[in-house]
Amino acid sequence: DAKTTQPPSMDCAEGRAANLPCNHSTISGNEYVYWYRQIHSQGPQYIIHGLKNNETNEMASLIITEDRKSSTLILPHATLRDTAVYYCIVRVQGADGLTFGKGTHLIIQP
Amino acid sequence: DAGVIQSPRHEVTEMGQEVTLRCKPISGHNSLFWYRQTMMRGLELLIYFNNNVPIDDSGMPEDRFSAKMPNASFSTLKIQPSEPRDSAVYFCASSLSGPSSYEQYFGPGTRLTVT
Lengths: 110, 115
Known about the structure:
The complex is a heterodimer. By secondary structure, chain A is mostly beta strands. Chain A has strands spanning 9-13, 18-23, 31-38, 45-50, 55-56, 61-64, 70-75, 84-92, 104-109. Chain A is built from no helices and nine strands. A five-stranded mixed beta sheet of chain A has the order 1-9-8-3-4, with no helix packed on it. Chain B is mainly β. The interface between A and B is medium-sized, with 20 and 30 residues.
């Protein structure tokens, strides 16, 4: 799996868009970008994934640069419940395990 | 669906004792994963099964750890004998396997404390 780099922590005001960056400059052509988050004392939760096109679902949007070396997870209207550690993971789609880095601790401020 | 079920939620045991953690995956899922989370090492994959068969156990720290999946609806992770450094939160996750598989569903975890 390609290595990812994320800022250790970020703050965002409640109601604003939270933009979480991830660098994955060694990503291979068949590797997807996945995002998971872990709210305190809970198991990780899948958010979204993509290959090269931008993706949107009910939780978030994923913007992948044209060269695929970086991406941004966007939470359009952050709430206090979005405070969590967000993990960016790059991997080939399939059934093997996930490799978690340190992630970004996102703190939503009231 | 109730999601991935893990038991017990909390376990406190003394060094040297045997510990068994249990997991019931989501019905219909054929891949099962065991992860461990500590402050020092973060989230690590220990082992995963596909169709009840262990596929990769390279993350199992040592012979004291063993995992089984006797059927599609149950898996155990056993530590014998337990040591204080095994204290961690252990997560079980399940998913569908195959090239279109993308989402793993995690259980609430078992917090293990070995004194």
